[in-house]
Structures are given as C-alpha cells and as structure tokens.
C-alpha cells in the first residue's frame, strides 16, 4: 500500500464562475463566462463565434446563479471540513476585483468577499489554493481591447495579480496563474476570450494571445515571489497522455505532436523558453509572434514553482482515415475510441493507468513538484427518497485513480496534493448542465435552474472522508 507523503493536501476544487453566482452583485462586472448559455449555442460561443457581448433575452445563463456559493460558502466549507479537507482550490473572479478589468482602483466589496472566504477556510485549517484566472475575463476587456490578442491585457493582468497578492499575502501560499492554459487552442473564447471576425487568421491570433498569457504568467510569478517570498506559484495544464492507436511510426509521431500542443505552454512556463518544435511550427505555418524586448528574459527568469494539472482521461490518435471515423464525443480533446477502455456517460475515456502514466510523463519532463488539481467523474446521479445518492460508480472511479496516483508516488513522482474536481455539484464548464454531477455533495438544482439549492451528502462523502483520514491508506 502506498504511503502518501505526510502533509499531503487532500481536498477538492471549484471555480468562481461555476459556483458563486451573484453575477452582478456587490459591484462585480460582467465576465465572459456570463455570456455562455446552455444548449446548442454554447459550443458556438466557446469557439469564438460570439454574436453578443451582453446576455441575450430568452437565453439561460447558468453562471448567473450557479449554486449560490457566494451566499452559502460557509455552509459548503463546513461540509468540506467535515470530510477533513486539507486544501480547497478556488479561483478569484477578476471582475469582482476589477469590474471592467482596467479600473484605476479595485472593488473593495469584491476584495472583502475573498477575505471572508479565506478566513472561513483558515478557520477549519483548510489551505486555500487559488487560481488567478479560471476562464474568466471582464467583458469590457473584450469590447475595448479584443481580450488577450491585445498586449495591454498583460499590464491589466499584472495589476490584478499584484493587487490580490498584496491583499491576501498572509492568507494564501499556493497560487496558479491560468487554469488549463492549453485550452486556448481548442476553445479560444473560453481560454482567452477571443472573438473572431470572418477571414481572420485564427491560428496567428491564438498563438499571439498565448504569448501574451505566457508573459503575463511570468510577470505574476515575479510579483508573487516579491510580495510573498514563501509563496508557491504554479501553472496549470489540461493533461492526459496521447496514445498512438498502433505502433505505426506515423501514429507514434502524431501522438507526440498532439502532446506537444499542450506541453508547449508548460515548456515555456516551466523551462523558461520557447522549444525548438514550437519555433518550427511557427515557421511551417508562417506565424509571426511579436515579442517585446524583455519578453524572453522575463520568461527565462520567472518560471513556475510547480505544475498543476487536471486529469480526466487519456487520448488516442491515428493517421488511418478509417480509424479516425470512430471519434469519441463529449470531450474537448477529440480522441479515437480506445478499444481497451470504457467511457463515461459523456464519452470521456476512463483510464486510471493513464493517470499514473501522465504524472510520470510530466515529472520526467519538468522535474518539478506536481499538484493534481482536478480529477473526477461527471455522471447522472439519482436522488433517493431520503435525500441520499448511491454513487458507487464515482467511488470506484476515484478509488482506481487515487490508487494509480499512489503508484506514481512510488515511482518517485513528487506530488503535493490532490483536489478532486467538483467536491460539490456545480455547473459543468463544457455543457453548462447541472445533471453532469461530480460532487460528494448533491445540490438540488436542474439544467433549467430550478430547485431549492439544498445540499445533501452522497455515499461518496463518507468514503472520501475515510480516504483523507487515513491519508490514502483506506480506499
């Protein structure tokens, strides 16, 4: 049985835009996530085809109320504490602090909310793990500047980061700059709030925006280390190793290329420079990345302290057109169906062994501590008459993944902690649904926003409590 490290940070992870609600309360500005409706139009908006930068009458926007964590956080944190959480990953909503993004002064009500939130966590000895930007940009920055395609956002982000580092320097030690930064390439409105016009060179815009985020991340690392000398500041990758469908060298090469699409971001944030394969990609695709004089020096001197990552599934790819016809649905990262693995109700490949492989791959590549900040199973839960949920399928998924994480630790991988995704039911980032549930705690709310928002414990609640109490020995 794996001996998890002493002080291992067991807990859960949520994002402001998926839990808080109160979307225009106490001075908060409109954010990009507030423009993501449910239904068929959601995917169109996520990929950058945005008709309106204001909520449209008749559309349902689940982030506007979410699960009302803004008003109920004390109740929820008490439940997390009952499970024994050592850490809780949250994000700060940029628009709660700077409603427009370019404001001269921060919004005190927004700052106070997170003061109160962190104080409540500290009351139960729960370590805050804070994401600075979790798919969240003030809409004004899209309207006025074109979001991350514009270099000016680097300065606005630096101001925002310095503001929250200064305010919470005595309350938060673990930080991450951008959530799943590689998502920019796949869902550009989600990852960088990019809106494209007809005929634009979208690849050029995406990689220029990526450069701006990478520089902003380096500036945040620099500021964080200056303001909070003992802070640990990480990056965050949507991870999952890519398997070649066969041993055909063409399949192997394609799998390597797919992985490099994601590694590119972390290579820069962790190693401090643009890798050779990226420079070739830019040449081959005639991409011209504009850099300012000190950019390369900034990237080199201000690399991250650890690698945060999400893991839900592995991926599989092929160069065979016939094989490529069998693509799994439901995941941002399109994948050939792996004949050796099952899939979730949303078509996400279930691969616990892939978790161990991915962790080893990242540690071998970067030799920096890893932090598993998302992992979980989205499933349809049935509420029993007594308010409980028998979610043995979730327990089985998590049990197998935690066991493989333990194997990675035995392999010598340095892992700081594990914050499973969605310890309480939240709005799905990809679909906007509530029926796609991840939590140990059931929230009475449906896809149309109906329900009492009452919280109740699932079977997995007591199971995870036992896992934490035994430091991973009892699965």
UniProtKB/TrEMBL annotation:
Keywords: Glycosidase, Hydrolase. It comes from the Bacteria. One of its GO terms (biological process) is carbohydrate catabolic process. This is Aryl-phospho-beta-D-glucosidase BglH. Belongs to the glycosyl hydrolase 1 family. Gene3D superfamilies: Glycosidases. SUPFAM superfamilies: (Trans)glycosidases. The keyword ATP-binding does not apply. One of its GO terms (cellular component) is cytosol. The active site is at residue 374. GO terms for molecular function: beta-glucosidase activity. The gene is bglH_3. InterPro entries: GH, GH_1_N_CS, Glyco_hydro_1, Glyco_hydro_1_AS. The keyword Transcription does not apply.
């Amino acid at each position: 049985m794996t001996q998890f490290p002493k002080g291992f940070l067991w807990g859960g992870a949520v994002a402001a835009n998926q839990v808080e609600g109160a979307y225009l309360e106490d001075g908060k500005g409109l954010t990009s996530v507030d423009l993501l409706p449910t239904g068929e139009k959601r995917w169109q908006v996520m990929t950058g085809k945005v008709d309106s930068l204001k909520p449209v009458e008749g559309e349902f926007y689940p982030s506007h109320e979410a699960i009302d964590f803004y008003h109920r956080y004390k109740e929820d944190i008490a439940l997390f504490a009952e499970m024994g959480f050592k850490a809780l990953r949250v994000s700060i909503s940029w628009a709660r602090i700077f409603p427009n993004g370019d404001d001269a002064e921060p919004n005190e009500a927004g700052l106070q909310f997170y003061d109160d939130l962190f104080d409540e966590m500290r009351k139960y000895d729960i370590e805050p793990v804070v994401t600075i930007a979790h798919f969240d940009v003030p809409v004004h920055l899209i309207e006025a500047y074109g979001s991350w395609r514009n270099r000016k956002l680097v300065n606005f982000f630096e101001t925002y980061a310095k503001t929250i580092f200064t305010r919470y320097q005595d309350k938060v030690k673990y930080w991450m700059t951008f959530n799943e930064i590689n998502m920019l390439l796949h869902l550009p409105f989600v990852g960088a709030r990019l809106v494209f016009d007809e005929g634009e060179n979208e690849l050029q815009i995406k990689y220029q925006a990526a450069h701006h985020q990478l520089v902003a991340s380096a500036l945040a690392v620099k500021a964080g280390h200056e303001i909070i000398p003992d802070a640990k500041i990480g990056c965050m990758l949507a991870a999952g190793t890519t398997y070649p469908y066969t041993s055909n060298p063409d399949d192997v090469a394609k799998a390597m290329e797919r992985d490099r699409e994601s590694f590119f971001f972390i290579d820069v944030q962790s190693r401090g420079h643009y890798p050779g394969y990226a420079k070739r990609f830019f040449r081959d695709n005639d991409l011209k990345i504009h850099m300012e004089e000190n950019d390369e020096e900034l990237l080199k001197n201000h690399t991250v302290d650890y690698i945060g990552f999400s893991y839900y599934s592995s991926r599989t790819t092929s160069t065979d057109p016939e094989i490529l016809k069998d693509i799994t649905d439901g995941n941002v990262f399109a994948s050939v169906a792996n004949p050796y693995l099952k899939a979730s109700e949303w078509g996400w490949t279930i691969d616990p062994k892939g978790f161990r492989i991915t962790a080893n791959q990242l540690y071998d590549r970067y030799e920096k501590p890893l932090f598993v900040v998302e992992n979980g199973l989205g499933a349809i839960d049935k509420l029993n008459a007594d308010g409980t949920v028998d979610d043995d399928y979730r327990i089985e998924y998590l049990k197998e993944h935690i066991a493989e994480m333990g194997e990675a630790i035995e392999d010598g991988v340095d892992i700081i902690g594990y914050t499973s995704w969605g310890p309480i039911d939240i709005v799905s980032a990809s679909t906007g649904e509530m029926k796609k549930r991840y939590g140990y705690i059931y929230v009475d709310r449906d896809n149309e926003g109906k329900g009492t928002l009452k919280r109740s414990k699932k079977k997995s609640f007591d199971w995870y409590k036992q896992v934490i109490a035994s430091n991973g020995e009892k699965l």
